[in-house]
Amino acid sequence: MKKIIRTTKAPAPIGPYNQAILSGNTLYTSGQIAINPENGVLVIDTIQAETKQVMENMKQVLLAAEMTFENVIKSSIFISDMHNFAEINEVYGGYFNHATAPARETVEVANLPKFVNVEISMIAVK
Q1: Could you say which of 16, 26, 27, 76 would form a disulfide bridge with 124 (CB–CB 3.0 to 4.6 Å)?
Q2: β-pairing, 72-79 with 103-108?
Q3: Which of 29, 31, 11 shows the shortest CA–CA distance to 20?
Q4: How far is CA 48 from CA 36, 54, 62, 118, in A?
Q5: pLDDT tens track for 5-43
Q6: 53-77 confidence digits (pLDDT tens)
Q7: Domain boundaries in the chain?
Q8: Quick one: CATH architecture of 2-125?
Q9: To 10 degrees, the CA torsion angle through 6, 95, 38, 65?
Q10: Cβ density class 1-11: b for 16+ within 10 Å, e for less
Q11: Strand order in the sheet with 2-5
Q12: Mean pLDDT of 69-86
């Protein structure tokens, strides 16, 4: 059975999907982009600020499922320009204990929703 995870502390979905689905003890999140949930404005001033907003949005989705970044077992990072990898990785890495960080892939793509520079999704387990 699946449980829909919703929080007003992360951006509302902009299509026919939910922020996350909890199935048993496993949480599957939708991709998060850098929308400020308080005002709906994209945070794209710098790649660091954009990545931080994405991670803060993801943090709120995890919290809504009573989890933290320690529960994350897999991350998928989609970026529009691999030249931004180092800056994205630095911000992303600040949210994890490096010794217990999740598995991950980082993929450069042609475009992302709203033409942002980074989108991240995760799988977490209680």
Answers
A1: 27
A2: parallel
A3: 29
A4: 14, 10, 21, 10
A5: 999 999 999 899 999 999 999 999 999 999 999 999 999
A6: 999 999 999 999 999 999 999 999 9
A7: 2-125
A8: 2-Layer Sandwich (3.30)
A9: 10
A10: eeeebebeebb
A11: 2-5, 20-23, 26-29, 118-125, 72-79, 103-108
A12: 98
Q: Give me 73's structure tokens.
A: 């077992």
In whole angstroms, give the CA distance from residue 14 to residue 76: 19
Residue 88 in tokens: 């994205």
Say yes or no to pLDDT of 92 above 90.
yes
How far apart are alpha carbons 80 and 97 in whole angstroms?
Answer: 26
Taking the C-alpha atoms of residue 30 and residue 109, their distance in angstroms, rounded to an integer, is 17
Give kind and range of the element (H or E) at residue 63. helix 47-64
Cβ 55 vs Cβ 92: under 8 Å: yes
